[in-house]
């Protein structure tokens, strides 16, 4: 008789434990800089209500979330993006500065109000300048009243990377001529906690006991032990909001069954560790069937770039165990440049049964070439030779009020000239252009986007770029090596069971294909989720159903800057 995997039994049972009525979750959040010790060294974080990371939003699908954001920063604006929430009917609440709203001025309050229409593991983060990198983030969990997974407990693991250099200094460095690279992060954080000048597992290394971390109770950098009971099933909700690092997470002695990616169930598959890129979320199920008298490391390490940052560690501890640390060294993170291993993980992800298939044909196709360039000797990232310069007036407002001088009306090229560009070499002409043009799509069409990677400015290097689309889930149709061949590579697309996601990785020297339906009137950012890359122009903007935007209710408070501010001040007057 065939043995049925334990998680499969769990996934077929459906339980309902939430009443049909939807609730309103309302909160006031004061955002301010605060001294903090994220990695046992004093730094400055962006805290919400004095907390770092920010509070977890825990809602049910269908609930209305109302967050009054009070900007208590003395000298800069702020916005918050609800990553993974589609904002159907509320594009003004998407929280992307310059795209959907103006930054909230110091001392002012802005109210986000939106419906979390679909269950999933999400997070929120700052989307102005490099504020995400300063620690403006937290988890956003949307539960299903009809959860199809059964588990006994759950943990949220919000992963991030941390620099000792302030974001203001980082922004200046990246915008300088010549550009000064910010380098690799000093620490990796799990739920805002890491260890810079010590190691929890030092007694396994050369340093020995003298480098072992000593924590006092309530230390802000002290890891949070995952306390579990034997023979139970736990859901780990994992999100990566790193500024730069691609990560790999493992739980020693335990396998992980991947069940959710970016808020969509996937066909369950079992792995020893997961790769997670900035902007992605996963849920994995973990069965506590290891020896309960032992303790086990949860380790997070860097992949995709040569790691100069130590692993982040915390401990999985069965309740009957003592407080000591595991008696064996932490798992070794798979070697950073084994890209084939990373690809094989990505290619294991398929939609769970019951998910809609993508439409069979697309109406429009973009081929977006990702290059690193120079603009007047400033280092930039460009898409089809345009480095995005986000305008002062938010697109959503300039489109609503027909303010045609607010941005470049000419759209960037839909395709790069495939034949003439060698993606394996540095650009023959390193110079690029800057622009604020956007792509316009009518409502109800199917759009394919091919992301095409290339060599950087110097040397033989092509970087990883996790691309995130606001306002949508998209189907990941496939990944390929080298240059995309239009008319040929489309035949390899997976139209049977591609996963729905909101973030997808573009591997070095390769291409990634995705498909989405323009079903959400608004203006939506589509960009590399690596904070320095976005800062250097690596993004595009999609406007959808612009004729609907004119009739849309957008709070004036979202548009109190640039040309929309002028328009609103003169409203009703000639
Ligand atoms: Cu990038």
UniProtKB/TrEMBL annotation:
Swiss-Prot/TrEMBL cofactor(s): Cu cation
GO MF assignments: copper ion binding; L-ascorbate oxidase activity
Keyword tags: Copper, Disulfide bond, Glycoprotein, Metal-binding, Oxidoreductase, Repeat, Secreted, Signal
Catalytic activity reported: 4 L-ascorbate + O2 = 4 monodehydro-L-ascorbate radical + 2 H2O
SUPFAM superfamilies per record: Cupredoxins
Pathway where it operates: Cofactor degradation; L-ascorbate degradation
Residue ranges of every copy of the Plastocyanin-like domain listed in the record: 31-146, 155-319, 415-545
Name the record gives this protein: L-ascorbate oxidase
Organism: Arabidopsis arenosa (Sand rock-cress)
